[in-house]
Design a protein that fits this description.
Length: about 220
């Protein structure tokens, strides 16, 4: 098992560092439907590296009509949108993504997380789901849990499921298993791993134990 800094260095040697800017802001949404559609058409066209003339030829639309669409001057018909979607290789719905689009958000007050039972749950093992968003634009489902272990148990649950999992210790001390590795975790420690390997608490060293567990997996998959 390699130290974290060594593993990161090796990853960077294979590919460039992560480029996503967590503070970046997308263009503001448009309140005028024609303008929203026009901006998307222009963006998709430029992404393909084609000219207005190229797009006009591919859709059998006039240059003047395409110019009006991209500048938000006219409202294209459904037939025109279908022609544009085929030429640009995107679904028709992609042209509306910037028009009054709402994003899901879940706010949970302290102590109000939904208590649930997971496969293998034992007495004294409490799982509180802190939020859930179903279908979304990211293509990823994320399940954040607050897990409390307040009583010792002779048998500990072992989980194994699709996706990735991140654990952050808040209170207590636990020896956590991932595959054949054991990790002694104290408050402030974290563990990030492929959840397809068997994992779970191996030894409850100091009770009570509380930690955050954040599981992510593709929308097409079923959560554990």
């Amino acid at each position: 098992m390699k130290p974290f800094k060594q593993a990161v260095a090796e990853i960077h040697a294979i590919r460039p560092p992560l480029t996503q800017n967590p503070h970046a802001v997308r263009d503001t949404k448009e309140k005028v439907l024609e303008v929203a559609i026009g901006r998307e058409v222009r963006a998709f066209r430029k992404k393909l590296g084609i000219t207005v003339a190229d797009l006009a030829q591919a859709t059998s639309l006039s240059l003047g009509m395409l110019s009006k669409i991209e500048n938000g001057i006219t409202s294209p018909s459904l037939t025109t949108l279908q022609a544009l979607s085929h030429a640009l290789g995107v679904p028709v719905t992609a042209f509306f993504r910037r028009f009054e689009e709402e994003r899901a958000v879940v706010f949970v007050k302290a102590g109000e997380g939904m208590e649930i039972e997971r496969r293998g749950t034992r007495a004294g093992h409490q799982y509180n789901l802190l939020g859930h968003v179903g279908a979304n634009t990211s293509g990823v489902v994320v399940e954040p849990y607050l897990i409390t272990l307040s009583a010792d148990s002779d048998v500990f649950p072992t989980f194994q499921h699709e996706g990735m999992e991140f654990i952050y210790m808040l209170e207590g001390e636990v020896v956590y298993r991932h595959g054949s590795h054991l990790f002694r975790m104290l408050p402030g420690d974290s563990l990030f791993f492929d959840a397809d390997a068997p994992h779970g608490p191996e030894e409850l060293t100091k009770l009570p134990i509380r930690y955050l567990s954040i599981i992510s997996y593709p929308q097409s998959s079923q959560g554990d």
